[in-house]
Amino acid sequence: NPGNPLEDYNNDAIMEEEQQQNLANKKGAPSNVAVKLDNASEAIQVLTSTRDFWSNTWEEAEPCAAIDQETLFDVESTVEMVLDYLDHVHPASLLNQIMAVNLSMAYFHLRVAAVNAELLRIRVVDKALKQLKDRTQHALNLMNRDVIHGTVPGAPADKNQQRVPKHASLEAIRACDDACDALAATEIAICRSMSLLHKFPGQYDLVHNMLRRTDQETIALPNPEGRRGILSAIARQQYQQQQQQQPNPSLREYVLRNANDSKPCQLFVRQKAATDPNNQEDGGGLMIALTQTHF
C-alpha cells in the first residue's frame, strides 16, 4: 500500500523553504510549500477514500465457494490460443524469447549470489557484473527490435524481390554471443572469489589483486622482502605437511589397464595392510585379479 504523502515533509524543511521564497512574488500568491501541503492533503483524502471503499466492499460481499464462481476465462479456448500461437510462431521468434528469459534470469541469479556473499566489495566482481548488465541490456534491446521487425515486412534487397520479415539480425546474434561470454567470465569470477574468500576471509583487496591477474601471468617481485616472504610461506606449508603425518591406509587398490585397444584387459590389485605389525598372524593380504574383455 502507498505510504503517507506527508512523510517527506518536516517542520525544518518547511521553514527553510518558506524563508527561501522569492520576495518578488505577487501578494496573495500561494507559496510552494502551501501548494505541496494541499496536494499532499488531497492525496491522503483520495487514498483514504479508496481504502474505505475496498474495505466496505470486502465486508459487504457475500462469501461464495470457488466452484460456484464464474470463471474469468475459458480454459479450452485459452489452450487453443496458446497452441495456435506456438503453431504459427516463427522458430527464430521463439528462440528470441527463450534467450531473453535465460539471459535475464542468469544475470539475476549471479547478482543475488554476489550480493549474498558480499562479493561486490571485490572490484573485479563488481566490474564483471556491470559489464554483464550492459551486454545483457544491449542484447535484450536488439532482440526486442527483432521481435517488432519480425511482425512487419522488411525492406527488400532488390525492387523485384518480395518484402520478408526480418526475424533475426546479425547484430542481435553477436550481442547474445557477447552476453554469453560476459556471463561465463562473471560466473568464473564469482566462483573464484568465493573460493579465495573461504581461504582468506575478509581480505577483499588481496582477492582482487589475485583475480585481476590473468592465467599464466608472471608477477614481478623486485623487492627482496616479497620474494623472501613467498619462500618462507612455502617452507612453512611444507613443514606443516611433514609434521602432519597421515596414518597408513588399511586398504590399497590398484587398477592397471592395457593400452592396446585390440587386446583390452585390466589387472586389479587389492592390498590389505596389517592392523597390528607386531602380530604375525594378522599380516595383511594381497589379491590379484586379471580381467580380459573379448569383442
UniProtKB/TrEMBL annotation:
Protein's UniProt name: Rab3 GTPase-activating protein catalytic subunit
One family name in Pfam for this protein: Rab3-GTPase_cat
Keywords, sorted A to Z: Cytoplasm, GTPase activation
GO cellular component labels: cytoplasm
Main location (coarse class): cytoplasm
Compartments, as annotated in UniProt: Cytoplasm
Regions that span the bilayer: none
Sequence similarity: Belongs to the Rab3-GAP catalytic subunit family.
Lineage: superkingdom: Eukaryota
GO molecular function: GTPase activator activity
InterPro entries reported for this sequence: Rab3GAP1 (IPR045700), Rab3GAP1_conserved (IPR026147)
Residue span, Rab3GAP catalytic subunit conserved domain: 13-86
